[in-house]
Amino acid sequence: MISKLFVLAGFLILGAFIGQFFGMFASVFILELNIKSGSDPAKLQAVLMNFIQDPNSFNHGSRAFMAMQWFTSLGTFVGSAWAYNKYRLKQTLSDLSPNTQVSWHIYVWSVVALIVGMPLMEFIINLNKNIALPAGYHTLEVWMKTQELAMDKVTQTLLNFETPVDFVLGLMTIGFLAALGEELFFRGVLQNIIEKYSLNSHVAVWSTAIIFSFIHFQFLGFFPRVLLGAFFGYLYVWYRNLWIPIICHFFNNALGVVSSYLYQQKIIDTDPLSGTINSEYYMVVLSLVLVVFYVRRLYNYKL
Fold first, then answer.
1. Which of 104, 176, 182, 184 is least surrounded, with the fewest CB atoms within 10 Å of its CB?
2. DSSP assignment of 72-85, as one string?
3. Could you give the count of Cα atoms lying within 13 Å of 296 in the half-sphere of its Cβ?
């Protein structure tokens, strides 16, 4: 198993490098940096570094940053999953979903489980944010909070929609491509590797969910993301069709994108990035009951 994980990690790093390379080219094209820098490589590099540190200070900076994110996600997750399956397993990505006969009810119940679980997830997110590490781990806590702030800045940049076109691009990148790539890589490849060698689907699901959450480097939402990853993992174990967790993942991501756009258009009053959403306790309890109900229903209809 270790050798397979090292090979997968190699494809991941290579895919990330290639994706970022093309992402940089896309950013240069969108921002017309080759013109502004006078084709001076040193000046172009300096401008690119400034762009990465503060994309919003550039005209169409959010769109260029979105393009960079698109290529990075494409190379890192989709590309590495495809390469591992093609060159290591001699399979296609479609082989990751051997069960093609899935009732539409399963897709509906999976999405409904996400919806009814939102108050519960918000409650867990607030609990996670209030966790304080022991005094001896102060340096680690500072690092975690620094990473959280950095990722929050990235999120705010990606969700800064200047035009409806930017919103559509955000829905495609943050909503669809992120869901597709992460599910291909984590549930389709990594979880399958762990399950094959551990011979235990629970170990595979929870190990993958922890890695999935950690790699986002947003530790104030670590435990809620672990639970979300585990939900996606069990959907894949139960039905052996990757499109079910992909669609659920897309719905979860798209909801944040749409909410941010509606807030920016002043259609809704609540900023989804504010992190101040609190649910009444009776709503949390009701949410828990409904999540258990729909998860049990999904489990009862498994293969």
1. 104
2. HHIIIIIIHHHHII
3. 6
